[in-house]
Amino acid sequence: RLCPLWRSSSGDDSSSPAADGQDYLPCDSEMSMSRTSSSSESGDNSDHGNIISTTSTTTSAPADGLGSKCSDGLGARSPTSVATLDPPRCAKDSEDEFLVRCTNSLSEAREGGWIMRLRISGTFTLVGAILFAVGFFLYSDVKLPWWTDVVGEAIWQWGLVILSLAVLPTDRKMIYFLVVMWCCTLILLAIGFVFTGSRSALVLYRKLVENPDEDHMTMMVIRCLAKVGMGLACTSCSLALVVSSLVRYPRDLLEHFWKILFVFAASLVVLDTTTFVVCLIFQPSYKDSHRDPDAWFVSLAWTPNEVLTMIVLSLKSFRHRAQAVVANGSGRVRIAAAISTLLSSSQDTETLRTALSLFRGVSCENLTKQIMANNTPDGSLLRLSKSVHLGEVDAFLSHSWHDDADAKWQALQMWRERFKLEHNGREPVIWIDKVCLDQSNIDESLRCLPIFLSGCNQLLVLAGETYLTRLWCIVELFVFLACGGQFQHLTIVPLRGYELDEGVLDFKADKVTCSRPDDKDRLLAFVDAGFGDWDNFSEQVQDVFQKASHPQKNRRFAETV
Q1: pLDDT of residue 34
Q2: Count of alpha carbons within 13 Å of 135, Cβ hemisphere only?
Q3: What is the reported pLDDT for 346?
Q4: Whole-angstrom Cα distance, residue 181 to residue 42?
Q5: Are 80 and 418 within 8 A, CB to CB?
Q6: Measuring CA to CA, which residue among 472, 450, 406 is closest to residue 112?
Q7: Which of its termini does the chain have fewer beta carbons within 10 Å around, N or C?
Q8: The whole model's pTM is what?
Q9: Three-state DSSP class for 460?
């Protein structure tokens, strides 16, 4: 089956160049994607890359615009055949429609953020607070039997853990509040273990001094040292949290917080297990007080909950799965909530007004190979771009600055020439960070990224060896699709010598990098909020690229012929 490179707007093949021997490209009967096949007369195909476009190659496509029909005609392959692109959306949408789409995207992002916050933070806060209150009452009432202390401590400890689940990776301020709360809790526990508790080290020491009992002296010393050890564990973990909060970014701090909590639980398991074994071996009949059972039994009673806590905290996906179960929302809601974290905290109208004032585009004729050679900031390049309205930018250029500059320049020029051919010689206007971002106000500009992506007619991806390792690149792709972009407006151009399919299959989310640590922390929080964990994120990235490169594999992106 061969797919013509050109079709008339009427869909009549008799008036197309094919009638005069125009070349054809081979394609699957269900493909809505075309690959570039470029070679010289002598067979040299090293000068061009392939354009993989999910845009339709015919204007008489179905209503969803996602499919392309194939011709039964035959012909020779063109030596410089390139896949056609859809007409720009600005020909279809007015600026008002772009404004409506951007406003809707902002509203959906804000609403998604509130929904996820209400489901996750609200639920865990309510459940955790109730458990903490009930457990603390049982633990602190001295009139109740000894076993209520064990049950009460287990309940309020789990209450604190569940309260901690209410803090999301995107809650930068709440993460610091969580750390402060746990630092205070650990310090109070240390004071209770060593000084003020009914079975504290100080109480045991006073008993040892006031009523020295040679038969029980060894056990009292052991129990006293165990309580001091627990106090030291609490103090050490509290100091570790303080130090981490000073040197780590919020999302990384939250990850480290859960590791410290695991270490704390493990230290309690070790201390209580050691005390249980020593008491059972040396003096099984020893009691801390007349109302308590044997000391070995008391130590054993604390251990199961501590072991369970340690096991749960050791599970890497525990937090993500727990939050995903409570959220119980669609992937679109989660992505919308994640996008809200990239936006500024101001109102939607102000965010949109700021984005409109900063939205710029640059004509491809103003770009040079030297500009594309490196990402060194140069404020003077801003003058090459101009302020534009939403919908006036033909493509948002997504690429990695670490890929080969010559290959990227060649791929961009190849796409540019095809665009000019199909738009009566008009130069394409693109958005590229180095030229269109105000370097003196880059943070504010990056907060408008979702709107910039919404205002572009298509996403042009120059995919090289490092593209899938750059976190910003992947986030740009998902934000574009979540903010109203569609697969037929996504064009992927693999760079010369790069096998995209192999790169997609080898993609691992834990390998992604980012130049600025603060950006990496914020974007990884975006991944956590939108996808739950890195494994799911990896699967989603692979799925998107496979659909974009091979839409015939998914019925939503294919047309049945």
Answers
A1: 35
A2: 18
A3: 61
A4: 72
A5: no
A6: 450
A7: C
A8: 0.73
A9: strand
Q: Which residues of 450-479 are buried (b: 16+ CB within 10 A; e: fewer)?
A: bbbbbbbbbbbbbbbbbbbbbbbbbbbbbb
Q: Residue 417 corresponds to which tokens in the numbers above?
A: 């020439």
Q: Do the Cβ atoms of 244 and 257 come closer than 8 Å?
A: yes
Give the H or E element holding residue 411.
Answer: helix 405-422
Q: What is the pLDDT of residue 345?
A: 61
Question: Among all chains, which residue has been given the structure tokens 């030596």?
Answer: 79
CA distance 453 to 481: 9
Query: Residue 514: which residues within 8 A CB-CB, separation 6 or more?
Result: 470, 471, 472, 520, 523
| Torsions phi, psi for 97 (to 5 deg) | -70, -35
In sequence order, the β-bridge partners of residue 33 are none
Mean pLDDT by 10 residues, the chain (561 residues): 30 38 36 36 41 42 32 31 36 61 74 82 95 90 81 94 92 94 95 86 85 75 89 96 95 95 94 87 73 78 92 89 78 69 68 87 95 88 92 94 94 95 95 88 78 90 93 88 78 88 84 86 85 81 78 34 20
| Cα 52 to Cα 34: distance, rounded to the nearest angstrom | 6
Give the per-residue pLDDT at 330: 55
Cα–Cα distance measured from residue 420 to residue 22, given in angstroms and rounded to the nearest whole number? 19
Contact in structure between 154 and 304 (CB atoms under 8 Å)? no
- CB of 456 closer than 8 Å to CB of 389: no
The one-letter amino acid at 4: P
Residue at token pair 């526990």 = 189
Of residues 536, 527, 533, 434, the one with CA closest to residue 474 = 527
SS3 292: coil
Q: What is the pLDDT of residue 435?
A: 94
Give the distance, in angstroms, between the CA of residue 456 and the centroid of all CA atoms in the same chain. 23
Q: Which two tokens stand for residue 101?
A: 């789409």
Edge to edge, the sheet with strand 459-463 lists: 52-53, 490-494, 459-463, 395-399, 429-431, 360-363, 386-387
The C-alpha atoms of residue 308 and residue 303 are separated, in whole angstroms, by 9
Measure the CA–CA gap between 35 and 421, rounded to whole angstroms.
17
Rounded distance between C-alpha atoms, residue 422 and residue 412, angstroms: 15
Chain center to CA of 546: 19
Q: Token pair of 189, please?
A: 């526990």
Q: Coil, strand, or helix at residue 36? A: coil
* Collapsed DSSP state (helix, strand, coil) of residue 398: strand
Residue with tokens 């600055």: 401
The sign of the CA dihedral 115, 119, 125, 130 is positive
